[in-house]
Amino acid sequence: MNKYLFEINDFSTDNDELMLHETLFHNANGYLGVRSNYEEGYPENYNSIRGMYINGFYDFAEMKQAEKLYGFVEEKQTMVNIVDTQGIKLFIDGEEFSLFQGNVLKSSRTLDMRKGITKRTILWRSPNNREVEIVITRMASFTMLPLFTIDYQVTAKNFSGEVKFVSTHIGNVQNYFNPDDPRVAAKSFKHIHVEKVDVQEGVSIISSKTSKSDLQVWSAVKNILSKEASVQQHVHSHSIECEITTDIDQDETVSFSKYTILCDSIRYENGRDKALELMNEATNKTFAGLYEEQEDFLTHYWENASVDVDGDDELSMAIYYNLYQLLQSVGKDRFSNVAAKGLSGEGYEGHYFWDTEMYIQPFFLLTQPDIVKNLIEYRYNILDFAREHAKIMGHTKGALYPWRTIMGKECSGYYPSGSAQYHINGDIAYSVINYYLVTKDLDFIANKGVEILFETARLWIDTGHFHEGKFMIHNVTGPDEYTCVVNNNYYTNALAQHNLKWAVKFYELLEAENLTSVIEKIGLKRSEIETFKQAAEQMYLPYNEEMDINPQDDSFLSKKVWDFENTPKDKYPLLLHYHPLHLYRHQVCKQADTVLAHFILEDAQSLSTIENSFAYYEKITTHDSSLSTCIYSIVASKLKQYDKAYEYFGESAKLDLFNTHKNTKDGIHTANMGGNYMAIVYGFGGLRIKEDGLHFAPALPEKWTGYNFKVRFEDSTIFVKVEGGNCTFSLQNGSNKSIYVYGKSYDLKDSLIIPLEEKSNVL
């Protein structure tokens, strides 16, 4: 089995399956994303989420509130479907190609993650018995981010005649909406308008502008045929249609090449000129040359990112699929981040959440830390919006990052499970701290990272208060969105404590290194640092001595436990079937909350408390969020409950490929894909990033014969291989490192072989 190859028999008349495939085989590169819609389209009675997107490109949309209370969000940003350049209709001697007529002899789709392309292969017999083989290859370039290509090859199998391609470039597009699903937009709205349509030297160009955000985008398309042909360009008010007609002989292959360049006004001062410049650069290369660049890029990517599992081919392929999607989803510049659905669809309207910091950055931090630097820089760039958001929420100091956003302003209209999730500040601070621990990039921390840390720390002081010798934080919501607006959410308080501690550490470090410009810039006083220190030391972390667990919040254990036994399966996810207040009154968790805190800040509690908390919350967690099972897998590994760890891991790994949450048609679950990586490396590998270095505690699941992965740490790359009864650590490059394995320190100079702990490889 080729772990880099995902292939299916594609032809289906089931509409839901077609939309699922649109997601699974989408093309993206972190800047642009294109859903895998049929080039020829579908019959009129079929639904399709037909979309092309740019990461960070948005329009404003109205969000009416039933009651206009102060600070309620009434305008949000939404990702925009910007243009449609996918369309290619094929006519064979006047007969239009469609999988929904004639005879489909073969139809398959392939994603090649080594080459960075998707492919449709079709053998079709027309109603008049003309037989053609069609191979359509798509690519979103990783080396020229604004470039998307379609390579459309037609082979005449049993005839000679005329072949005509009709390539469309359509600016009149709209976003998908579904009023019955809160995870996508509820209304249809015209977010983008065509300003100009023209053709210059064979390149069609559409200039468009958003309705409210005043952003512009330029799409340029060029069509090239492999042989002499008749070409006609039809320019309309909102679109351009290019007809290319030629003859084809029996057994001859004709290649039709379609290049698309997308440039936006966020990144380019003159996007039209830039689009033409890049089009010229792209078309001066052959497809073979472009494919070679793509494969070279991915060879380098997989050298660092590979996670190999021996003993389960299906699972191994799912892991590679997830790691590839992370690369397709992550923004490659300071203007963008990672949307909840990547660039594969319009679920959650392209918004960025805490998912990035807690589920996606851990992967890139250990494989491509420069990407994490970009992601943190994005948060730095929206820091002023976070300061303004803090003021709206009643704070006099500090910054409060928006729960969901694109350009920096809060997009959540339902504050109990949105703006009340103050832990977003702790999550972002946590990511800054981990970036420093892995890279030791003090210059970046001093210039940008620490300002985030200080302003989020200020926010905790303004939010919380000292009471009877404890620092408490009231009326916030933790990760669990079935329990909202509570006092002293354990996860939130633990992250706040971590944030405050490190604000003090960085203040002292920067003073010692004479890197105090940010301290002076924001007017941070020594008295504030003393308050940070006191609040961290006196942070109240809920604890029930009798049960030896950390309650999720002050009131959680006093609530009635949800009646799981009598809840029908078709009532899940609960958020779609029960009023929020009804959920809030019960002990029921949508996802890992306290259990997540026990993973990322495991040293805050004893092992017995972690074990008891895990057992307690496991019984009342529905895992209605895709962010949940991977965390339960990691903590189960920590507790050496490897049977549970493996079960949770399997659910996480195959979520999208098997559409287990039944909404992959709206886009992939990007954070879960990062969590899937963590379940191996942080779970079975036992990796933890701590102030004194990297800690490992490997275990080998019984169903595997072995697994391996690489991690970047400071200037070095470490290869970890678990096989048989041993774990091997090899220093592939860089300086010697001290690492910890099962709590014992080792000096890694070349290679180190350590026996697996007794029973650690038994399920």
Automatic annotation (TrEMBL):
Residues 687-748 form the Glycoside hydrolase family 65 C-terminal domain. Signal peptide: none annotated. SUPFAM superfamilies: Galactose mutarotase-like, Six-hairpin glycosidases. Residues 14-263 form the Glycoside hydrolase family 65 N-terminal domain. This is Alpha,alpha-trehalose phosphorylase. PANTHER family: GLYCOSYL HYDROLASE-RELATED, PROTEIN-GLUCOSYLGALACTOSYLHYDROXYLYSINE GLUCOSIDASE. Its EC number is 2.4.1.64. Keywords: Glycosyltransferase, Transferase. It comes from the Bacteria. InterPro entries: 6-hairpin_glycosidase_sf, 6hp_glycosidase-like_sf, Gal_mutarotase_sf_dom, GH65_N, Glyco_hydro_65_C, Glyco_hydro_65_M, Glyco_hydro_65_N, Malt_Pase/Glycosyl_Hdrlase. Belongs to the glycosyl hydrolase 65 family. The lineage of its organism: Bacteria, Bacillati, Bacillota, Bacilli, Bacillales. One of its GO terms (molecular function) is alpha,alpha-trehalose phosphorylase activity. Coiled coil: none annotated. It holds the Pfam family Glyco_hydro_65C. The keyword Oxidoreductase does not apply. Residues 321-677 form the Glycoside hydrolase family 65 central catalytic domain.
